[in-house]
Amino acid sequence: MAFDKDSIIASLKEASITDLNDLVKAIEEEFDVSAAAPVAVAGAAGGDADAAKDSYDVEITASGDQKVKAIKAVREITGLGLKDAKGLVDGAPSIVKEGVSEDEANDIKAKLEEVGATVTLK
């Protein structure tokens, strides 16, 4: 069976966040792997790099008791539609925004924590 990397990448570019989240979960189940493990290892190894870091990824790790408010906050922050924002919150831990400045990352974290969500900066 031929493996067409370019067509797979093109399909992924057109997919919604919810579809991509479902794909990651299916791959994790099928191959008995975790997509989160390499991130944790890389984060632990780069402890000294945090001091000079100039961009951050904001990750929601739990929606908290006020899930609807967390979804609304994610929509406001990302500009996503309701379905995609709900998929992101339901699929936590999920990256809300990537490559943002420290100030913007802290602002996003504050907005999400204000509605009870648990957030980490990477």
From TrEMBL:
Record GO biological process: translation
Molecular functions (GO terms): mRNA binding; structural constituent of ribosome
Large ribosomal subunit protein bL12 C-terminal domain: residues covered: 56-122
Gene Ontology, cellular component aspect: cytosolic large ribosomal subunit
Keyword Ribosomal protein included in the entry's annotation: yes
This protein's UniProt keywords: Ribonucleoprotein, Ribosomal protein
Top-rank lineage group of the source organism: Bacteria
Gene3D superfamilies: 3.30.1390.10, Single helix bin (1.20.5.710)
Signal peptide: none
InterPro entries xref list: Ribosomal_bL12, Ribosomal_bL12_C, Ribosomal_bL12_C/ClpS-like, Ribosomal_bL12_oligo, Ribosomal_bL12_oligo_N_sf
Domain Large ribosomal subunit protein bL12 oligomerization: 5-51
NCBIfam families tied to this protein: L12
HAMAP family: Ribosomal_bL12
Stored PANTHER family: 39S RIBOSOMAL PROTEIN L12 (PTHR45987), LARGE RIBOSOMAL SUBUNIT PROTEIN BL12M (PTHR45987:SF4)
Family: Belongs to the bacterial ribosomal protein bL12 family.
Subunit-level organization: Homodimer. Part of the ribosomal stalk of the 50S ribosomal subunit. Forms a multimeric L10(L12)X complex, where L10 forms an elongated spine to which 2 to 4 L12 dimers bind in a sequential fashion. Binds GTP-bound translation factors.
Function summary: Forms part of the ribosomal stalk which helps the ribosome interact with GTP-bound translation factors. Is thus essential for accurate translation.
Protein name per its UniProtKB record: Large ribosomal subunit protein bL12
Designated gene of the protein: rplL
